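Before relying on records like the one below, remember that each one covers exactly one chain. Contacts with other chains, cofactors or solvent are not represented anywhere in the record.
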Amino acid sequence: KKDINLEIEQGLIELNGGVIESKTYAEIYAQFPDFKDMWQNHPEDFAPENGETMPHAYERIWNTILKIASENRGKTVACASHGGVIRCLNCRLVLNDIEKLKDIPIADNTGVTLIEFDDELLNAIVTTLKKTLTDTNKSINYNSKKIKINRVIDG
């Protein structure tokens, strides 16, 4: 049995939906008719009244991951978050362009993605281990990509 230090990282909380928080998609689509097209085709334009813009969330999430990686060089760290956060992170890692966010599916519940940074935080290998923890598919590493990181955070 290992002692595991659990920390709440505010930088990985779900996007703040402002006026659409706590509403079903049906309620949102009825109240905000343009939302469905924007969410499906231009999610980078997400900017709900009294909420967080997608570009802000995209940067917040990325900077938080770099901070965690910088503070934990050489260690294994597990992070858990919501689908919108994971979608933004996967977009940043795989496509490095918020304009392509629509091309990244919303993360599966219990999906597992491994990000292995080098010591300088200049490169990373991103591997989707399983779509979900309940998958019976035994193949691991069905999606792996080496990426270059644009910046370094000193630790």
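The radius of gyration is 17 Å.
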